[in-house]
Hints:
The chain has helices spanning 7-14, 87-99, 123-138, 144-154, 208-218, 225-242, 245-264, 275-289, 313-319, and strands at 25-36, 41-43, 48-49, 53-70, 74-77, 80-82, 105-112, 166-170, 181-186, 192-197, 295-298, 304-309, 324-326. The strands form 3 sheets. Strands 1, 4, 5, 6, 7, 8 and 9 form a 7-stranded mixed sheet that branches. Strands 11-12-10-13 form a 4-stranded antiparallel sheet. A two-stranded antiparallel sheet has the order 2-3. The protein is 36% helix and 24% strand. By secondary structure, the protein is of the alpha+beta class. β5 (74-77) and β6 (80-82) form a beta hairpin. The structure holds ligand 2P0. Ligand 2P0 binds at residues 34, 37-39, 47, 53, 121, 123, 155-157, 208-209, 299-300.
Amino acid sequence: MHTVPSPAQIAHRLLPAAREPGREGTAFASANIALCKYWGKRDEALKLPLTGSLSISMGTLGTRMTVRPAAADCLQMQGEVFAADHKVARRLFGFLDLLRPPGLCLEVESENTIPMGAGLASSASAFAAAVRAMEALFGWDLPPRSRSILARLGSGSACRSLERGFVEWLPGEAADGMDSYGVGLAPPWPELRVGVLTLSEAEKPVGSTEGMRRTVETSRLFDAWPAQVARDLPRIRAAVMAGDFHALGAAAEQNALSMHATMIAAWPPILYWRPETVAALHRVHALRAAGLPVYATLDAGPNVKLLFPVSARADLLAAFPDLLIATP
Ligand code: 2P0
C-alpha cells in the first residue's frame, strides 16, 4: 500500500542537497486573483485542489520578502515585529521548516505593496515570495514546477503567484501532488486592469481553509461545483488565448458567484457578503447595462474585484473613487 508523503518529504524530494546559506536572500511575488476559483481540497496536508483554477497576477501589488540567517527566528511585517508564537509567525516559520536545514534560524522581513486593509489576501504572494527568497539565500536554481509545488505547500493559491500574467493551476491526480502546480498560460493583456473595491474591513468570519472544508462537507450545492469549473475553465482559457474580454469577464463573474452560492448553502452558512458587497454588484451590473465593459469577481471576503479594459478606467473611478487599480 502506498502512503501519502508528508509536506516535508515532498520538499526534501524537490530541494537540492544542503548548501551553505549566503548572507541574505530577497524576492518579490505578485498577488493573484482567480478568474476560475479554487474552492475545495482533495488533500488538506498537501493542499491539493479538487479542481483546476486560473488566475491573473496583480503586477506590482504583492509581497517583497528578505530572509537572513540569525540567532533566533524573528518576523517583521510592515516594520512591525511579530512574536514567534503569533499565528502568522508560526505559519510562516512552519513553512520555512520545509525549506531550511534543521537548526537554521532566520530573520524575515516581509513588506506588502498591497495597501493594508485592502482586503486582498496576501498569503499567496507571501508564500511565493518566501520560496523565491530562500532560493536566493541558498543559491538554488529551482525548476519552475518545483517552485510552484513548494509554494503550494504553504497556501494553495500561492502556486499561482510565481509567474506574471495568466496562470493555470493544474489540479493533478497523483496522491503526492507532484502533478499539481501552476503554469504560466499567457502574458497579461496590456489593456487589462484589475480593480479592488475595499468595502468592509470587518474581520473575516471564516478563513479559507475552514471555509473550503465546511463547504465540501455540508453544502449540497458543492456537488455541482466541479461541473461548473469543468464548464468555466475551458471558456476562460479560450477567452485568455483569444483576447476576448467579454467572454473572459462573463465566465469569471459567473464562476465567482457560483462559488459563493456553494458557500452560502453550507451549514453553518458562509456568507462573506456585506450590504456594501451587494450594492457594489448592483452598481457593476447597472454600469454594464449602460455599456461600460466591466465584470466583477469576489474571493473569500466581502470585497469586490473588477475586471475592465483601461479604456473604462475614468468612468469606473468616477463611479468608485476609492478603486485600487492593478496592471497585471
Ligand atoms: C482562489 N481562494 O482561487 C480562491 C477563491 C479564495 C476564494 O485560494 O487553504 O489561502 O491555504 O490552500 O490558497 C484562498 O485560499 O487556501 C483561495 P489554502 P488559500 O483564489
